[in-house]
Amino acid sequence: MPELTEQGILESSPRMDMDTRFNFRCDPGMPCFNCCCHDVSILLSPYDVLSLKRGLHMHSSEFLEKYTLTLRSRDKHVPVVLLRMEEPSQKCPFVTESGCSVYRHRPWACRMYPLGMAEPKGPNAAANRFYFLVEEKLCQGHGAGREHSVREWIESQQLEAFDQMQAPFLELMSHPGWDGPEPLSQQQLDMYFMSLYDLDRFRRFVMDTRFLDLFEVDETRIEAIATDDEDLLELAIDWLTFSLFHEKRMKLKKSAASSERMAEASR
Ligand code: SF4
Ligand code: SF4
User: Hey, which bits of 5-77 come out as E strands?
Assistant: First the structure.
């Protein structure tokens, strides 16, 4: 069984494409039912957080506080959000005797299992994406039950919406600006966390500060972000790509641009 490390997966995992077939069974009749929802590291993407906090009818700040753990990546100190297991049982806060209590809103990683997805680093990473089987010893579903293709699995777990919403975030994460000479400041990293994960707070930042006086955002988009979390997340990614890496994904209003030029000239 290949090691479940980045290197192990890239070097030794048998690569699967959309048509590769595998057998897998998972249902309440399995002797290992719910075992996989204990002591597990589940990374949450911004869309996972959006989906869970909406499903639980919670404010994003409250959700993050109650159910997550934020670590920092070793190299760039970028915030990384994980689902927090309960203490001392180490069980997922959402697992119940009858299964996952947030099934309709469960994270990408829970939907994908027993599949993993990897993209070798370098140009055309997305085009070189492949899938692989995550074979946990405790899981007795491997090789049992009916046959699925990777494509059928992805469809049955309704992963298309997740993949569509996650694509701009993955693009932001692989932006060459992360490798620039200057690391991002603490203030920029805090802004990154708030905009992507604490969406309800980001909405207040957009609506209640001078944000809309400074940037050109059309009326239809303003109406959408007032209530729609997906639209708000798209704006967050445009804003971060602009503010962290100076890409023209947002446009300053003329009045704001000229005061910025004046400020620059007086420096
Ligand atoms: S979110 Fe649901 S499926 Fe995922 S670990 Fe928790 S209980 Fe299990
Ligand atoms: S351990 Fe495997 S078969 Fe058992 S409940 Fe979890 S995913 Fe299903």
Answer: 21-24, 43-44, 68-72
How far is it, in rounded angstroms, from Cα 236 to Cα 241?
9
Distance of CA 203 to the CA centre of its chain: 18
pTM (predicted TM-score): 0.91
Q: For residue 119, what are its two tokens?
A: 């993209």
Q: What are phi and psi of 233, to 5 degrees?
A: -65, -40
Helices (H) and strands (E) in the chain, counts: 12, 9
**Gap from CA of 161 to ligand 2 centroid (Å):** 24
Ligand 1 atom with least separation from CA of 95: 7
What's the one-letter identity of residue 253? Answer: K
47-72 tens-digit pLDDT:
999 999 999 999 999 999 999 999 99
Amino acid sitting at position 163: D
Ligand 2 proximity of 141 Cβ (cutoff 6 Å): yes
Q: How far apart are CA 152 and CA 213, in angstroms?
A: 47
Residue whose CA lies nearest to ligand 2 atom number 6: 36
- What confidence tens digit (pLDDT) does each residue in 77-94 have? 999 999 999 999 999 999
pLDDT at 58: 98
Q: Tell me, using a 6 A CB cutoff, whether residue 30 lines ligand 2.
A: yes
Q: Could you report the per-residue pLDDT of 101-126, keeping only the tens digit for each?
A: 999 999 999 999 999 999 887 767 77
**Rounded to whole angstroms, how far apart are CA atoms 92 and 133?**
22
**Which residues have a Cβ under 8 Å from the Cβ of 28 and sit 6 or more positions away?**
98, 99
